[in-house]
Amino acid sequence: MTMPLPVPLDVLPLFPVLDHELLTLMRSLGHADWQRPTLARQWTVKDVAAHLLDGNLRTLSMLRDGHYGEAPEAVDYAGIVTFLNRLNGEWVRTARRLSPAVLIELLAQSGAEYTAYLHTLDPWATAAFSVAWAGEAESKNWFHIARDYSEKWHHQQQIREAVGQTANLLTPALYRPLLDTLLRGLPHALREVSAPVGTVVQVCVSSASGGVWQTERVADRWQLRATFVPGTQLAAEVELAPEVAWKVFTKGIDPAEAGAQLRGDAHLGAAVLRMVAVMA
Asked: What global pTM score does this model have?
């Protein structure tokens, strides 16, 4: 029997918690820490902090104030990614002129305004931007907000990884909502994999901070189940340690280096590990 779709995610109360963790961390960093390399390609800790600030300011400018600045030349997925990569790179290079103290002050102010803006959104209204990595051409605000939570979480964790302080975000209260958000992209990741109706693929992230997610092949698509169903016959299972699961789905690590345990259909398992729940 096909399970109903998962319930919407409510992560709004977690934004102030996430911001508090970020600001507390950054105020504790020494001079050398700001220049440590991160998983975000060529970006340092300071660069990733600047990118987080850009996310706050860009959202407030575009969505709260209606000021979009410029539009992408192409609106297909590849065109949007190219456009975003250019904007991100331009901002980070410019923000290298800012001191860590200035970055912290701006993040504190803009973070509070950003969260206040999110609270004005009707969670069931259509979002200004869809969650394209989940295959949606149109999304509700609750998913847009959850996507923003995942952005803030994983970029902060990139900083924490660089300075060896990852435990704060790997708690059940903060990590499980991150995984719940990222794994909404699982049906889209499997979209080109054909399988008989009723085929079930399972993803398990070990530890109390993780969980188990199942997606099932229905008539014309894959569909995420609302809840984990014990005893289900699985076509494939992918098990990941919590320390690496978020990296796999945000392009922070090569899936081949993730130490994943694959059981069952290798083709299905490989498709799961190729899932990317960021615009990339």
From this structure: 0.94
Residue 231 makes CB contacts below 8 A (sequence gap 6+) with: none
Does 176 reside within a domain?
no
- Say if CB 106 and CB 124 are below 8 A apart: no
Number of domains in the chain: 2
Domain check: are 140 and 260 in the same one? no
Question: Which residues is 44 bridged to in the sheet?
Answer: 37
Q: How far apart are CA 63 and CA 86, in angstroms?
A: 20
Give the pLDDT band of residue 119 (cuts 50, 70, 90): very high
- Could you tell me if 263 and 142 lie in one domain? no
Cα(199)–Cα(162) distance, integer angstroms: 40
Q: DSSP 3-state assignment of 273?
A: helix
Asked if residue 86 is part of any domain, the answer here is yes
CA 174 to chain centre: 12
> What does DSSP assign to residue 274?
T
Residue 49 corresponds to which tokens in the numbers above?
A: 């902090």
Q: Are 23 and 98 contained in the same domain? A: yes
Range of the domain at 202: 184-273
Phi, psi of 153, rounded to the nearest 5 degrees: -65, -50
pLDDT tens digits, 164-173: 999 999 999 9
